[in-house]
Backbone:
């Protein structure tokens, strides 16, 4: 993956910090409706090792009020402008499904459009190509924006619900990536995200996570957005405040299987986990290796 002149791969995985400019994010630890709070979180994330900062102005789930495009822009633009001014080399990502919001934000030097709703706005990839940004291609099982999954099932010609979700994710991501490339987004700027919890039960998300290696075979950088999600909470029967360890376990598995970009609330912990996995796998050398060496 190449963004803003930087390359990320198995030896240098990217950590994407989450900054929610919303008063109603699902996790109270990342509600930054006030600009000063959001900028403080930005500085903390950069200090902790974030490579990318992803800002969003609309809660993903259906709870909370309707947020129109004008309100979304009022939330994200002051942050993006301040972030670009203070950190000119930082990779900036905008979490939106609206092409008009992405186009308006282009002037700040936007590097990535994180479309978590699977091309609901078909003009979004054209905007990404037009402004020279990358794009995240996601999978939501066909659900429109801000729709929580209810009684989701997947079945195909094999009639196998468990693996049918994997096949659906693979088809959806391959198709979405092809659309982005055809629109003019370079392949090295197209990220694929299986989008766990979106259009998926907990069992679906766990199955797709186990098949991260199959996603890698599609040939695009993989973004995994795992942080404190419901599939972690339901697996361990924990509320968002207590989902860090489960998130990091899922992160380590995804990293080992080929994901290279990780959207995270807990930047420092995620940075250490993905770097350690890369080192164990042999893609990243230890920072130092002196134990047992001859003494001078």
Residues:
């Amino acid at each position: 993956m190449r963004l803003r002149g930087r390359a990320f791969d198995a030896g240098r995985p990217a950590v994407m910090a989450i900054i929610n400019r919303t008063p109603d994010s699902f996790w109270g630890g990342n509600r930054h409706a006030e600009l000063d709070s959001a900028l403080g979180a930005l500085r903390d994330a950069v200090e902790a090792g974030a490579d990318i900062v992803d800002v969003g102005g609309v809660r993903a789930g259906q709870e909370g009020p309707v947020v129109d495009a004008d309100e979304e822009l009022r939330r994200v633009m002051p942050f993006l402008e301040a972030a670009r001014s203070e950190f000119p080399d930082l990779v900036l990502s905008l979490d939106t499904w609206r092409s008009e919001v992405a186009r308006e934000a282009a002037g700040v030097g936007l590097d990535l459009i994180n479309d978590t709703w699977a091309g609901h706005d078909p003009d979004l990839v054209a905007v990404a190509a037009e402004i020279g940004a990358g794009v995240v291609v996601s999978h939501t099982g066909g659900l429109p924006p801000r729709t929580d999954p209810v009684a989701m099932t997947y079945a195909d010609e094999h009639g196998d619900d468990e693996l049918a979700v994997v096949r659906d994710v693979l088809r959806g991501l391959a198709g979405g990536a092809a659309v982005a490339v055809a629109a003019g987004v370079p392949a090295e700027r197209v990220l694929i995200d299986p989008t766990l919890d979106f259009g998926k039960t907990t069992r679906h998300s766990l199955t797709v996570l186990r098949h991260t290696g199959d996603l890698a075979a599609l040939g695009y950088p993989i973004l995994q957005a795992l942080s404190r999600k419901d599939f972690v909470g339901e697996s361990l029967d924990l509320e968002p405040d207590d989902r860090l360890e489960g998130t990091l376990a899922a992160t380590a598995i995804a990293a080992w299987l080929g994901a290279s970009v990780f959207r995270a609330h807990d930047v420092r912990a995620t940075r250490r986990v993905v770097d350690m996995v890369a080192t164990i796998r042999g893609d990243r050398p230890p920072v130092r290796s002196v134990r047992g060496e001859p003494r001078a």
Q: What stands out?
A: Residues 161-183 form the longest helix (23 residues).
